Amino acid sequence: MGDTDTFSGMNPERVTRKAFVLFFCTGLFMVSLVMAALTAIKVQVVHLGPLDVLVPAGTLAFCFTYLATDVISEVWGRGYALCVVLTGVAMRFVMAVLILYAMHLEDIAGFVSAAPSWTAERQAEFVSVFSSGIRTNFAGLVAFFVSALADVLIFHHLRQRDMGRNRLWLRNNLSTMVSQILNSTIFIAVAFGGIESWAAIGSLILGQVVVKLLAAAVDTPLVYLLRNIAEGRPLTDMRG
Questions:
Q1: Nearest Cα to 176, choosing from 143, 141, 210, 150?
Q2: How many separate domains does the chain show?
Q3: CATH number reported for the structural domain that contains residue 63 in this entry
Q4: Cβ-proximal residues to 217 (8 Å cutoff; 6+ apart), any chain
Q5: More confident site: 236 or 164
Q6: Transmembrane residues, as ranges (predicted)?
């Protein structure tokens, strides 16, 4: 079997739309995953009419990860999507190690010291921000693994069940919504338990769920668009 067959019919000697969409979605997934972890420690208030809900700032970035895996699942199948998810888990671990290195290398390596311009006050602020990131990174790692795995498996199951019935919109929304609820519950409980009150934790979970469900509905046209570009369909093709 040649390289072209191995890589789902994509010619390795030239740039194709299908190859571009695969790498675009993989890049979007990884960048969004990192940004979600780095920005989750900031909590924002979202005003939804009479309802005010607390939402971590990384919520929007995290929503893009589901867009990416749904497109990959639809075009390339469950195996590719699972590879991206497992790589994301590994990258979250690498990220945690690198954050610890940046915070504490001078404390454990006698041959390294901070530059004169790096004052004790700046170090304290740096550690204050990124030590919170360690906890949210761990919470995100656990929540991400469970929810992303659920997203891929639910999407694949619905894809197999509804083959030929033009229900991409259904599997995109249903798989994303279920996995987002799982993610929000696990992440908020682990990241903010003992830090925020239970009322605030409940509001955070509710806020994440509401925003993520809205994002799941809004990203459906983007899933169709990226699928159509990858498969060479008309951009407005809503079949599948």
A1: 150
A2: 1
A3: 1.10.1760
A4: 173
A5: 236
A6: 20-41, 53-72, 79-103, 138-156, 177-195, 201-226
- Give a yes or no: residue 62 inside a domain: yes
Query: Is residue 125 situated within a structural domain?
Result: yes
Q: What are phi and psi of 127, to 5 degrees?
A: -65, -40
Q: Which of 40-44, 80-84, 179-183 has the highest mean pLDDT?
A: 80-84
**CB 72, CB 80: distance < 8 Å:** yes
Q: Which residues, 6 or more positions from 233, have their beta carbon under 8 angstroms from its beta carbon?
A: 227
Describe the crossing of helices 78-108 and 17-39 by its angle, rounded to 10 degrees.
Answer: 40
> Which amino acid is residue 171, in one-letter code?
R
DSSP H or E run through 240: none
Are the C-beta atoms of residues 43 and 195 closer than 8 Å to each other? no
Secondary structure of residue 193 in the 3-state scheme: strand
For 110-150, what is each residue's pLDDT tens digit?
888 888 898 888 888 888 877 765 676 677 778 888 888 89
What's the token pair of residue 193? 């338990």
On whether residue 37 sits in a domain, the answer given is yes
Q: What is the pLDDT of residue 4?
A: 42
Provide DSSP, 98-158.
HHHHHHHHHHH-TT----TTS-HHHHHHHHHHHHHHHHHHHHHHHHHHHHHHHHHHHHHHH
Three-state SS for 42?
Answer: coil
CA angle, residues 217, 59, 85, in degrees to nearest 5: 85
Give the containing element (helix H, strand E) for 207.
Answer: helix 198-218
**96: domain range?**
3-231
- What span, in angstroms and rounded, lies between the C-alpha atoms of 221 and 224? 5
Is residue 76 one of the residues assigned to a domain? yes
